Amino acid sequence: MRSLMLGLPVLAVGAVMVPTLVWLQMPVDMSLPTPTVAAGELPTEKEMRQLAETDPIAFFENCIRRYNKEVKGYTLTFQKQERINGVLQNKELIKVAFRDKPHSVYFEWLEGARKAERVLYVEGENKNKQGKSMLLARPRGAFIRRLIGDIVEREVDGADAKQSGRLTLDQFGFKKNTERTLASMKMAKERGALNVKFLGEKKIEELNNRVCYVFRRHYDKPELDGIAELTIFVDKETWLQTGNILKDKDGNLIAEYYFRDVKLNPKFDKDQFTRKALMP
């Protein structure tokens, strides 16, 4: 089985790529033969490279297939910078723990915290009177905590959550991110407007110089928040979508996300996804 541990030097984004990077632009060439993969088997590294060059939809489908077979959870360091309500926020650096079943997300801000310094969401737990799972947060700042408490409950898709990030915690995770990428590509292909270039393999500085497959997509019509261009980084070793850069039609940054220091399938502390994890 392929190793799924990302090398240590590694979530939803920041500055544009350093100008010293030189891209080898390789348009997706549909005239090339698409590799045939045996039913139930994952492609080899060579076959994944061929899919990257000829069939990006099949490439990302196989990323999800491998995830489903091999990943149950992970920890990582998440770097993000986002434009929210038209304002480009400062960069944030977040320590993350994630568990697939039930969908569980823990964030602890290392840099750039705004409203909260730690948050937790566990699907099916911490329900309000209406039976909806709530986000738990430890507010940032001792003065604020004295006013409203050490731990507060908020709707996972409520106003506070949406002011803190473009995507809410119930939408977080490698698999959900790649599913969104794939769904958008499929819709564009159906209307004959899928424009994706495979830019080759590259070491990405923001991902601790991990080698990634790099794709760039141009949209025929802007999507959420005016996205017109998307650059995607997929870790060559693990097939995880570890970076995204989103820009509008004028080249302005909408968001930038990097997921590094990834450790897959760790043994979590018994309190990792409980209220105790929110307290010092």
Short description:
The chain is α+β, with helices and mostly antiparallel strands.
Can you offer a commentary on this structure?
With 280 residues, this protein is α+β, with helices and mostly antiparallel strands. It has five helices and 13 strands. Strands 1, 2, 3, 4, 5, 6, 7, 8, 9, 10, 11, 12 and 13 form a 13-stranded antiparallel β-sheet that branches. α1 (45-54) packs antiparallel against α2 and α2 (56-70) packs antiparallel against α5 (174-190).
Strands, count: 13
Which structural class best describes the helix and strand composition? alpha+beta
| Main sheet record | 13 strands, antiparallel
Termini Cα gap: 38 Å
Number of domains: 2
Task: Return Rg in Å.
Answer: 19 Å
Strand content: 35-45%
Helix content: 10-25%
Q: So how many helices? A: 5
Looking at the structure, what is the overall shape? Answer: globular
